[in-house]
Amino acid sequence: MKQTDELKQTTEEMNQAAEQPAAEKPAGEVKPNPDDLPVYLYKQGNNFEAQRFFGSHLEEQGGEKGVMFRLWAPHAAAVSVVGDFNSWKPGSHPMKKTDGASIWELFIPGMKEYDVYKYCVTTRAGDLVFKADPYALHAETRPSNGSKVYDLSGFGWTDSAWQEAQKAKDAINGPMNIYEMHAGSWKMKKKEDGTYIPYNYAELADLLIPYLTEMGYTHVELLPIMEYPFDGSWGYQVSGYFAPTSRYGTPKDLMSFVDKMHNAGIGVIMDWVPAHFPKDQFGLYMFDGEPCYEDPNPRRGEHKEWGTMVFNFGMNEVQSFLISSALYWLEQYHIDGLRVDAVASMLYLDYNRRDGEWEQNIHGGKENLEAIAFLRKLNTAVLTRHPEKYMIAEESTAWPNVTKPAVDGGLGFNFKWNMGWMNDMLSYMSSDPIYRSYNHNKVTFSFFYAFSENFVLPISHDEVVHGKCSLINKMPGEYEDKFANLRAFFGYMMAHPGKKLLFMGQEFGQFNEWYEAKPLDWELLDYDKHKQLQTYVKTLNQFYKDHPAFWQVDYSWEGFQWIVPDDYQQSVVAFLRKDAAGKQIMIVCNFTPVLRESYIMGAPVAGSYKELINSDDAAFGGSGLHHNKAVRSKKVPMHGFDQSITITLPPLSAVYFEVPAPRATRAKTAKAAADKAETKTAARKPAAKKTAAGEKKTATRRTAKAKVEKGAPAKETKAEKAEKAEKKAPAKRGRKPKAEKPAEE
């Protein structure tokens, strides 16, 4: 707005105060110190704890308690602090430049915790703009948007055991099964007028922990909880990069949430949004009347479709701001990892831009070189300090080496969402099974690149909103068919290489799309199918945690092997997952509503295959009619293996089998057990009481053992005897053997 004469006079007074020489400064004000280390590092882009210097901080100066304010506003003509304490009058508490250029500072005695304030910035054009503090630690609840003075100290953390345990763990090769959720709508309180209000952070933890523990999830991921003005953005348009949203309580309430989660053995990941920010007048947009945090180039600085501004990733002060924010959540709030939103929009200059709306980089390409350098710097800073933390990229293109170290030319993340797998599988599962044989490559294509990055398989919030349907409503068919399809999909997903993520409500088959203003439809659990689906997901989650084959070698071919990749005519796939010790689980999926009896497929080891999980089990809502008893392999080569098995595949199912240990392994284990028993027996016999007869028996045993070691035939096992008898047995006459339908090779 244009100033009135009164505001012009106030502005002139502020300008005069800002230009006041050091000798004329009011008592109690800090003198300029151009050699101040935080400012130096900040301007170099290397102050990764900038919030300790900037923002508002309770201090004592000259025996008076108050608040120190510091701000970066390089284009401002003048800045003052306004709030309830001075009736929001511009110019009554003018700030001073401490570096003669861009850093503003003021100590105000008498201010206290929870006092509300803003910065009144006079632009070079002479306008006044009222801005929230970019480094505020707490904020008013929307629709108000003032910043609040807050003291972060004093919270009593009790999660030291969790923190130490994480440092000792392998972040890449450990189990990670994430429950993605929106903190405000998982469950809500219903008021008398029928409207809903959210629980605060601490209350939410008390409700959430028993559920996550019972369901078997290892981590919870929160949609953005940094302060944001618009509920409908779900937190992805951030106005406060250091303030937890006050919708759900105070900063210490959030600390309590994380502390409780850790003490329950649950990791906490949060979405973090460094790609863009909204245009709200009180926020970062045109902060001092000119491009400040955003890229000043109009062909690079705005996402028109989103109505947001793009950060100026090449500016040192912006780098310090963003990297400080990332580390702040990891260190101050003990967050275990950040899922970095919209990475693809950062990497490409032409992202969501038509021809003529973007310009090439200095090499003539479309890559955003400054953003690439920033991401490498960000990930190096975070993972150098905290190698146990997670930096997860939501990157939706085929950009190479996202999870490779920056020093090796990668972006430096340690995980990446596998958006290609997600798109392919949701497209495949939503198609009528009659057409799936023509789209079989959508099931198998992800394995061509499954080990090129450290992938997380995401079924996220983005897939169940804006008319895309809930996950169960994507499934084709009638009511029963939808549940059968979803069970088959979940079984396949859990066995596929990569960490796992599922958005809230999909685990029990919510039919409605997610809506941020209402809680999930928990009443559906009163219906058998929904309760049984939840039981199935719970069983899968526990199986995942209990079997290292599903997570220990997630990012190498050593942990995976195809058995049946190409039976497209019957829409069947079969593969193995292996742990570091060589233990194997066989997974077979039938994506058609057709019962496959006498399905023959290759088997990696001779022996008996035990069914572990069958998605068609009655306890999971299936028919319960088609289970496999222990299946014995036959020496009939198939699919590149010397052995094969014949199994029954229920319609629309995923079945897990335990693979027997190889005979050599079993013999080695048996021999080790025998040697151990013999050693214990010998230890129990006193040497002085040996008789001649005893010595003779011992000598006999040693001679026998020596014969075996020199090549004497070992005693046949029962299984070997049975196999030999089967080979010698004459074929029955007068009857042809029943034809068995093999898998497509």
Write the SSE topology:
Blueprint lengths: L4 H14 L18 H8 L10 E7 L2 E9 L5 E6 L12 E2 L5 E7 L6 E7 L5 E4 L6 E2 L7 E2 L11 H9 L8 E5 L6 E3 L5 E3 L2 H15 L3 E4 L3 E2 L12 E5 L6 H13 L3 E6 L3 E3 L23 E2 L4 E3 L5 H17 L4 E4 L2 H5 L21 H17 L4 E4 L21 E3 L1 H12 L10 H4 L10 E5 L11 H4 L4 H17 L3 E5 L24 H19 L13 E8 L4 E7 L5 E7 L5 E8 L4 E7 L16 E2 L10 E7 L3 E6 L4 H22 L7 H18 L8 H11 L17
Parallel strand pairs: 10-13, 10-24, 13-16, 16-20, 20-21, 21-22, 22-23, 23-24
Antiparallel strand pairs: 1-2, 2-5, 3-6, 4-5, 6-7, 6-9, 8-9, 11-12, 14-15, 17-19, 18-19, 25-26, 26-27, 27-32, 28-31, 29-30, 29-32
Helix pairs in contact: 2-6, 4-5, 6-8, 12-13
List keywords for this structure.
745 residues; alpha+beta; eight-stranded parallel beta barrel; six-stranded antiparallel beta sheet; 32 strands; elongated; disordered N terminus; disordered C terminus
